[in-house]
Amino acid sequence: MKPASDEQSVSEAVTATALWFEAAGLCRMRRERLPPLAEGEVCVRTLFSGISRGTESLVLAGKVPVSEYARMRGPNMGGDFPFPVKYGYAAVGRIEAGPTDLVDRTVFCLHPHQDFFVIAADQAVVLPEALPAGRAILAANMETALNVVWDAGILPGDKIAVFGAGVVGSLVAFITSCIVGTETVLVDRDAGRAHLAANLGLDFVEASALEGEFDVLINASGSSEALESAIRHAGMEARIVEASWYGDRQASIPLGGAFHSRRLQIVSSQVGAISAIRRPRWSFARRMAKALELLTDQRLDVLISGETDFYDLEAAYPSILSSQDTLCHRIRYR
Fold it and tell me: How many CB atoms lie within 10 A of CB 146?
């Protein structure tokens, strides 16, 4: 579904095109009216959006637990869980209308896949000059990774294993490797992810070959088998951080053996709340600003595994989610 002209202006953008999930495994492009621009709002023309494969797969499959319906709502989500719902949270665009000091600025927004949208001005975060718009779609993932590292309480000298060489796991390992004196290894079942790790300057080990004990172990794989491995490789009083989200799936973990004698800690991490040790001083805005700053490293482009035209997204979306090669898939808007 395409607009009448690829050069549609904001004055013509009375309607917008957005991707909606209509039933399990079924998505459709819909046309919808934009609300009139009110004081304190901006109209954004989308340049890129990013598909967050793990979360969006669960949403498209209808596997968001009823207990999490309210917490899983994005700030600009449309519809209601389970269906129909308009979902996504990684959009980068240019402000076409709004406060004079913001017009023509390039911004990151927590918004679903849509070509034009209207939001409150304070929801549009201006990008640092050194951050390309095409890489900024990783902002929500970087914000999550930063929160995970805070929850992990990593200190200089720690030996760290990060399970899952997806986008969040790779970003977590990237951040921890920059902490002075740390030894970080990225762990994945797919030996092909060694190339990704190398491009990020990270050590890599295939999951079946992991050896030794670690001070901090982070599971970002969405696999209970990885969580079991983390427990096996945890040193005395080590901290294990579960950063995956399983939706309505159950995860079993072995709490026998040496789990108690080694006094292991298992803690959860979720981006919806700022880590407790940072909460007195850090706002969501400050955390997002730091995430954008961390994205200025051009090596992180390796996490963008493909690109699709927005108007081809309806047909391409399910296969993007199902491909094991998908990391962050970028959507380009005309």
Answer: 23
